[in-house]
Sequence to fold (702 residues):
Amino acid sequence: MDAATAVTTANDLLRKQGYRTEVYASGDVPDSVSAERGYLRESGNLVFHIALIGVLITVGIGGGFGYTGQRVVVEGYAFSNSLASYDSFNPGRFFTDTALVPYTIAVDSFKVKYEEQNIKALGQPIDFTANVTTTLRGEQPQSATIKVNSPLEIGGSQVYLLGNGYAPQVIVRDPEGTVVFAQPTPCLPQDANLFSVCIVKLPDGLSEQIGMVGLFYPTAVVLANGGGASNYPDLLNPLLNLEVYTGDLGLDNGKGSNAYSLDTDSLTQIAGRKSDVKTLSLGLGDTVDLPNGLGTVELAAIPRFVSLDVHHDPSQGWVLLFAVFVVAGLVTSLFIPRRRMWVKAVTENDGSVSLEYAGLARGDDPGLVAAVAEIADKHSGVKVDS
Amino acid sequence: MTDTLVQYSLLAVYSAMAIYTLAFIMFTLDLARRTAATPATVTVERTVAMGSTAVFEKVTTDAPAKRGTPRYLRVAMALTLIAWVLHVSAAVLRGLAAGRVPWANMFEFTLTATAIIVGVFLAVQFWQDLRFLGAFITGFALIALGVATVNFYVDVVPLPPALQSAWLVIHVFVATLGTGFFALGAGLSIVQLLQARREAGKAIRLNFLDTLPNAERLENMAYRLIVVGFVFWTFTLIAGAVWAERAWGRYWGWDTKEVWTFIIWTIFAGYIHARATRGWRGSRSAVLAIVGFSAVMFNFTIVNLFFKGLHAYSGL
Fold:
């Protein structure tokens, strides 16, 4: 084998293994070939870092076009996707009203499954399902379900089921028996057994403004110290204890106030621990008189409420795309070796050809020695130890 | 039925712990033997000249005296394998008892994670002889299992709705796998630091280091394990974000666990860059690897138990 043939075969061999090669000659006789591979490693590195910047930019700018809004909806009620109907709303920096696709979501029912077999987890919720009817403007209503881990996709946004609780429907009648208040009141859950605090405000309808602070127990038990508690989250023995206040509720001065709290400092308690009349206790279906002949109050029904979280983020698909590029770039840049190889054929004085093999790693390359050995092995046909 | 399976599972855990203890003792005896023995094996290095240039030469090697595997080490490895089989069956039984993957609370997570760490340790032996890390790994598994059974134990309860997702299988499993590789990487880095001190001529009375690979080789092995862990960790981070988007309505919310997972990612990203930076190779990058693994442990224990956040699934 002469030097020229050796170099040509080495060139073919290296090309077959994916190297870019270049043959060098002294005079007319080719006597060495140099080869390089692993450009993909550098490409991967670039892709990884550019994709990281992509993630930052899409998160930073893209998030500005989105919005999140929260809304509490009682079973049997609906909400429409408009600014006014949200309980709280966080628009992104570049949000405009046109981003709100007009639709309505009616919560038909909300089912909770509790653990009933396993004594160690009795009452632990194991499934939440909200059955809803959705209507996009100008289209037929459609049934859908919303569950934890399975949000509803509608109008380019996702609707999540984030919380739930009870919304006892308290009906207040004046002394003549006319209904002056009949809305369900969402109560704030305080513990895992859904002991909840309810606030009812009646600025109009009765002879005085009244405010009520309710303690609601889905499964009421009396503790040893005489206090009440709930020991199961489902409605096994519902009880609503109401303390009643009169006075100026502060709703007429035009200032916004928190529907879930009642400032009792300037109010007079007319039923409860601090007054002569005991706290009003109502089971489901019970009706009791309000003090001072103000009227009556009835616990008519106990529907549940769900708190829905609406998210609109047009950028999140892009974030995911860049994240995939991050991983792809990372894997390529870490695991594809970049190396150079040289095969040199030296014609000795006696006419024999001596072959030299060398490799150079760019970066960390544990397989370099083996790779050089393999080339040497295949090319020269002589087994070489690595 | 559930209770029976849980009992068998616990029995398997305790048996595994007993055998890990024996394995740990054997690994330690092996290290002691290495201290006493005169170094007979010679690590054959490729000739490295000028940075990362590897010039290939036919290296004639003095064939290291083939003396067979030392008895302590063989016994230790066999014991580790037996303990690991028991350990894995404990996790499987726990999963069967609960009717789901056995990593939904801290006890189960520790149980499965340590099984995977030991599994990675055993599997890696096919690639490299890292048996000298046996004392580190079995000791680590033993302590983790002890803490898990004594302090983290909770009864089998159903999955809360937020965890009822295929992502529980993927996200948590890959995180555990990543942890396994980081653990081995950290173990190697600790040995590397000791070895580097010894090589620098500092007086270290740990003669067993003579029988272990040199610092540079330890560093290379640690690096290769850690980059695998890093890819898994990156995937965990992204899969976690995808799941968070489904379950909590946002893909990133600066939850404490999210923050710490990101911090760990950054530390290991720093480690990889340190390896490519002159002056940061060697001991400094080893320190980064150890800091990274400590952060993983911190994230799992302190963050889980004492920080409030959405990842509050310890069940405690």
Q: What stands out?
A: Chain A has a mean pLDDT of 89.
